[in-house]
């Protein structure tokens, strides 16, 4: 047990170091969206997960621009390495991606009055995936931030069955629905899992402090009010975990 905890601590320290070189950007401009779409195309082609036409390499759809959808680019040393789209799903606003394959399960959550975060379109540059196996952690940190910001009841995981063990191990995700083939774009089976975030997140932050964030980072990422235009934001996990003095540290020093 001690050895396992020591390994977890070393891994967490390494992720914290990587975060020092990461920037997050909410994508809403055409140029940035095209860069994100190219990452999607390269990742889906390399993983053979989707029907792709060579004549249409830019994978953008109308849902990317939904009022409750948030597309992010993750930059490492100013290079775009991954992307994810987060849906804030509510009983009043049910636009999401997982519900297209698992409509009964999604509606059951929503009909019970729950709110959900649905992270989809997670894609990483295959050219650097092997060099940086921590990419899923750096990317999915955004999902934990969204569940905190929106005070969601569940964070969904629509994943390949082979990836289910990762989500169970890291996020204590519960099984929701068996693998199902999608008759649309995807050519792989997908299953549905969900994390009870209000119960799991406090324990997750203790085990993996790099998932932590300060409230002002979450606000800059998800607030779409007139005075909070899209920004490139530096992670605040180190500040949130170690409680560094905030003297001369403000939101303006984290956004560029």
From TrEMBL:
Q: Which organism is it from?
A: Rhizobium subbaraonis
UniProt domain N-acyl amino acid synthase FeeM catalytic core: residue ranges: 35-194
The protein's superkingdom reads Bacteria
The protein's name is: N-acyl amino acid synthase FeeM catalytic core domain-containing protein
Recorded hits in InterPro entries, A to Z, give: Acyl_CoA_acyltransferase (IPR016181), FeeM_cat (IPR054597)
